[in-house]
């Protein structure tokens, strides 16, 4: 199944990382290993850049790409490669006045700009260092689009990249152009006339160039709803949770009485993002998208599309954990880390943003249920008009029929200054309890131990958006002890060169005997009613994820 995400190494801010591939190679192997182990991903979507190709030359570029594909193959993943891209910075005065766009200097500096404290990009600016490919200055005379110049300049790049790999099983698809500028973007003042004209020429010509090489895998291009004849499969982008609108695009060529008319099919190469703090609705979070796919399958839709979840795999220096921008106004960008990343599925140390999401991905891909208990409050159908969740206005309880001596409880919740939550789990008369309120996160264990984390110390805070809380109970380091760990809204260590590790906010051991696992789960209001729960799950203590394997040996 086509389920994956876009991949840029966590430390890299854009697709120019290819120039420094040897510096990233070990991290790539580690991150792709995490993606396969934690998420079970069988594929990734990866952007190339003509500036990297020009800087490296054909031979070195081909070598680096081959080494990357070998790493992906070792992780049992195939790769969809993107040749051109109009998102988003085309050059002068972006992402703010005085900036010059992508250049050789930006290649060497990783990103223009990079703050003196080491922060890459602008705080709060989503994809602030992402450079369109090609840049405007690469496209010729800015006064007019020249078809001959574009062909002479970029056909050699396309053929040099595709020809050696045209029958290579490591490549899943060739994506000619991501989000090309169109006249609707010119009218909205997103793209210039020159950008629309050159991108239209490149998209249509590059599709022909690739098809003439007769690759064994599909050749695709955006947009699905406009000028879509230059794509073997409909290439759809959707950032919402109105799945009826998803159906309208994905099945736009289908006749409800004749499924054979769907022969071109569809892939959602950008399939949503999480419900970001302050936003009015879910934007297609992984749990809702996976529920949609399950609903399509159960309701015998003409086909189930491939999806690339949450834009990208890694939470990192692309800064898409924020929603704002580009373009970005430095005076208004958010300085603090978001409560929950808007995009991204894995932190650099391999910890998933959500073990529940990760379990749902693996369940979709393998059919195996990793959960001891789960509820998302989503109806199992493929046409929901939005996310669904539990409003906690009374006490709720559920039996848990499976368990073990170690387990993980995880929930996504939205509280207010007055409305908090109590999560309780355990045996009928012996429960542990996590109280989640605006000021404190407090764990009271079966044996009576009590530990509190003051939410004022949380960089992201806990008000104004969804939070992820996670508790792990496991056998302690000594016989007859239990180890407790609690996480709240983990954030990236953006000034740490390694981008940090995801550590608990509460951690201690106590003398007690591990139980056989929780037999019941309760949710109760704390203070006034009205807090919300998007999902809650109980998993084995490792989240159902196998231990990390040793880092693969990289042979150069």
Largest β sheet strand count, sense and barrel closure? 8 strands, parallel
The number of distinct β-strands equals: 21
Mean of all residue-level pLDDT scores: 91
Strand order of the largest sheet: 5-4-3-2-1-8-7-6
* Overall helicity: 10-25%
Strand fraction: 15-25%
Tell me the overall shape: globular
Distance between the termini: 31 Å
- Secondary structure tally, helices: 10
CA-atom Rg in angstroms: 24 Å
Structural class: alpha/beta
Low-confidence stretches: 550-556
Please explain how this structure is put together.
It is a single chain. The chain is of the alpha/beta class. The chain is 22% helix and 23% strand. It is built from 10 helices and 21 strands. The strands form 3 sheets. An 8-stranded parallel β-sheet has the order 5-4-3-2-1-8-7-6. Strands 9, 10, 12, 17, 18, 19 and 21 form a 7-stranded antiparallel β-sheet that branches. Strands 11-20-13-14-15-16 form a 6-stranded antiparallel β-sheet, with no helix packed on it. Helix 1 links the parallel strand 1 and strand 2. The protein starts with a strand and ends in a 16-residue tail after the last strand. The C terminus is likely disordered.
């Amino acid at each position: 199944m086509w389920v994956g995400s876009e991949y840029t190494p966590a430390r890299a801010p854009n697709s120019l990382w290819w120039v420094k591939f040897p510096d990233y190679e070990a991290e790539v192997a580690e991150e792709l290993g995490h993606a396969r182990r934690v998420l079970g991903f069988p594929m990734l979507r990866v952007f190339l850049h003509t500036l990297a190709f020009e800087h490296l030359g054909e031979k070195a570029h081909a070598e680096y790409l081959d080494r990357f594909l070998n790493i992906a193959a070792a992780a049992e993943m195939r790769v969809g490669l993107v040749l051109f891209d109009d998102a988003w910075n085309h050059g002068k005065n972006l992402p703010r006045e005085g900036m010059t766009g992508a250049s050789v200097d930006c290649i060497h500096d990783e990103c223009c700009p990079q703050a003196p404290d080491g922060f890459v990009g602008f705080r709060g600016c989503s994809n602030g260092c992402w450079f369109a490919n090609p840049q405007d200055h690469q496209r010729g005379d800015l006064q007019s689009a020249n078809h001959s110049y574009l062909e002479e300049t970029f056909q050699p790049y396309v053929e040099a990249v595709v020809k050696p790999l045209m029958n290579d099983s490591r490549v899943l698809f060739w994506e000619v152009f991501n989000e090309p500028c169109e006249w609707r973007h010119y009218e909205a003042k997103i793209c210039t006339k020159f950008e629309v004209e050159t991108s239209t020429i490149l998209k249509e010509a590059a599709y022909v160039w690739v098809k003439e090489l007769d690759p064994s895998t599909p050749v695709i291009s955006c947009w699905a709803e406009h000028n879509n004849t230059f794509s073997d499969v409909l290439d759809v982008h959707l950032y919402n949770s109105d799945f009826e609108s998803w159906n309208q695009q994905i099945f736009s060529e289908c006749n409800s009485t004749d499924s054979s008319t769907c022969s071109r099919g569809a892939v959602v190469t950008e399939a949503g993002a999480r419900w970001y703090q302050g936003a009015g609705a879910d934007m297609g979070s992984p749990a809702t998208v996976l529920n949609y796919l399950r609903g399509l399958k159960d309701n015998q839709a003409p086909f189930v599309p491939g999806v690339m979840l949450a834009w990208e795999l890694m939470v990192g220096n692309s800064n898409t954990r924020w929603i704002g921008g580009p373009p970005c106004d430095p005076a208004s960008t958010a300085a603090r880390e978001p409560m929950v990343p808007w995009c991204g599925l894995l932190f650099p140390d391999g910890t998933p943003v959500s073990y529940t999401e990760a379990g749902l991905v693996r369940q979709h891909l393998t059919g195996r249920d990793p959960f001891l208990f789960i509820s998302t409050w989503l109806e199992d159908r493929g046409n929901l008009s939005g996310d669904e969740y539990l409003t906690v206005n009374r006490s709720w309880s559920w039996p848990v029929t499976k368990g073990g001596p170690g387990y993980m409880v995880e929930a996504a919740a939205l509280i207010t200054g007055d409305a908090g939550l109590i999560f309780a789990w355990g045996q009928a008369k012996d429960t542990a309890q996590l109280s989640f309120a605006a000021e404190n996160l407090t764990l009271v264990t079966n044996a009576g131990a009590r530990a509190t984390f003051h939410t004022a110390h949380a960089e992201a805070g806990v008000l104004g958006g969804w939070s992820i809380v996670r508790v792990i109970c496991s056998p302690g380091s000594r016989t007859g002890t239990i180890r407790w760990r609690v996480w709240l809204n983990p954030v990236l260590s953006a000034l740490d060169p390694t981008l940090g590790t995801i550590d608990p906010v509460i951690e201690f051991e106590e003398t007690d005997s591990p139980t056989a696992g929780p037999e019941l789960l309760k949710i109760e209001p704390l203070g006034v009613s009205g807090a919300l729960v998007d999902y809650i799950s109980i998993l084995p203590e490792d989240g159902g994820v196998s231990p990390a394997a040793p880092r693969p040996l990289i042979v150069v």
